[in-house]
Amino acid sequence: MVTTLQRRVVNPLQRRVPAQQLLETVGRVSGQPRVTPIGGRKVGNEFWLVSEFGDRSQYIRNIKANNRVRVRLHGRWHTGTAHLLPEDDARARLRELPRGNSAVVQLVGTDLLTVRVDLDD
């Protein structure tokens, strides 16, 4: 139910918000760009986020097929390479990320997975 609500209502609305952080992956089947609203934090040349549904998230499946991504931060797109970090303590990581998004991820998340994006610029 949460996934359907996010996919059909929340995500389309959030994609339109200029300040919203976005992750663009390449669709593993279609080869087309797929844009997902995310919440995370840039630390140096790395961007950190936590996926609430782990391997069941479509963007995680896309990253597994092609880990080259783009991240929109403050209205500017950055290219990078995403790394899935199942050994990372995702709950501890959430304490280092923005509180609002982290609270939602913890509330609805069923299979937390840390993602680090090494930014090219």
Question: Care to describe what's here?
Answer:
This protein is α+β, with helices and mostly antiparallel strands and 121 residues long. It has one domain: Electron Transport, Fmn-binding Protein, Chain A (Pnp Oxidase, Chain A). The protein contains four helices and seven strands. It has a seven-stranded antiparallel β-sheet with strand order 2-1-5-6-7-4-3. A hairpin with a 6-residue loop joins β1 and β2 (33-37).
Radius of gyration: 13 Å
What average pLDDT do the residues reach? 89
- CATH names the topology as Pnp Oxidase, Chain A
Shape: globular
The SS-based structural class is: alpha+beta
Give the helix level as a range of percent. 25-40%
Note the run of SSEs as H and E: HEEEEHEEHHE
Distance between the termini: 37 Å
So how many helices? 4
Q: What count of domains describes the coordinates?
A: 1
CATH architecture verdict: Roll
Q: How would a crystallographer describe the biggest sheet?
A: 7 strands, antiparallel
Q: What is the CATH C-level name?
A: Mainly Beta
What name goes with the CATH superfamily? Electron Transport, Fmn-binding Protein, Chain A
